[in-house]
Amino acid sequence: MGKVILTGDRPTGKLHLGHYVGSLRRRVQLQNQGDFDRMFVFMADVQALTDNADNPEKIRQNIIEVALDYLAAGLDPEKCTLFIQSQIPELAELTTYLMNLVSVSRVQRNPTVKTEVKMRGFEGESIPLGFFCYPVSQAADITLFKATTVPAGEDQEPMLEVTRELVRRFNQIYAPVLVEPNIMLPENLTARRLPGTDGKEKMSKSLGNCIYLSDTADDVWQKVRSMYTDPEHVNLNDPGHVEGNAVFTYLDAFSTDEDFANFLPEYQNLDELKDHYRRGGLGDMKCKKFLNQVLNQFLEPMRVRRAEFEKDIPEIYNILKKGTEQAREVGAQTMDEVRKAMRIDYFNDAELIRQQAEKFAQK
């Protein structure tokens, strides 16, 4: 299919700024540039169920929330294919075949898996098998659609490496059917791993340290006002540290020189603001107020678009149904090739049937 993008999100809640800077912003840019032949964006509800199996309603309710966030952020169903993972049974089939090509120890060494296991509090043998096999399921997502490019944060690179290993092994054993993908990291280095508002290394719904794309202006201000800064910057005149300071990390990711001209004209750019903070004499609250203005100006157009889409929810489901049908057509074609390569396309192999008929006729 040429150059193909595939990317998606677990529908366990509304999308947040970490999702946006990690991949969503880039998806919208890529869709509009038209440099790729096909673009697939999906809701990974099967993967979300690996650690939410006892609460499927959580996933069911958040499908629409993620879809609304996609559309509000600018994803266009006329330019990209939006689909729901669980509605593509070919994904489960391919996952099963790929599981035979990777060892338990290889998955255990995956640093992303280790981090996610620790974050969810799984211990020893309590890890659900479905969750443990997450990297293989993700590999199936990518390879079923022969994706060449996966826009994602740097924490997903170990996952992509597992996918590439599986592709090479499959193609070597059977036939060159699957395609090795490359990761496309955010252009802004800071945005590759946006911290939570509490300064923790990753913004996460489960940690409650997110600013959501659908947050109101008041919500954003409440979260920015309590944001982690520099614990040693107690008094106004104290020298401050911008490294590890969540406010400045967010400003790195979102502010522009134009924002300074509009909201904080005494500084020409972020470098000048950082220099003043390091010298001392600049309060945290002033920086937070500026960040609040930057974020709300950025989020307001999404709020407006989301409100419009919310007026016709049945149409959102129609968009997802149509996209899922289109995605399944592509997946079915790939699985035809996979089964043929693996020599399990029994009913379509006329030569096999002929040979077997001759063999038994000679008895």
Automatic annotation (TrEMBL):
Alphabetized NCBIfam families for the sequence: trpS
Annotated catalysed reactions: tRNA(Trp) + L-tryptophan + ATP = L-tryptophyl-tRNA(Trp) + AMP + diphosphate + H(+)
Keyword hit for Nucleotide-binding: yes
The protein, known as: Tryptophan--tRNA ligase
EC class: ligase
UniProt cross-references to Pfam families, sorted A to Z: tRNA-synt_1b
Family to which this protein belongs: Belongs to the class-I aminoacyl-tRNA synthetase family.
GO cellular component terms, semicolon-separated: cytosol
InterPro entries assigned to the protein according to its UniProt record, in alphabetical order: aa-tRNA-synth_I_CS, aa-tRNA-synth_Ic, Rossmann-like_a/b/a_fold, Trp-tRNA-ligase, Trp-tRNA_synthetase
Gene Ontology terms describing biological process: tryptophanyl-tRNA aminoacylation
Any GO molecular function: tryptophan-tRNA ligase activity
Origin: domain of life: Bacteria
Segment forming the signal sequence: none
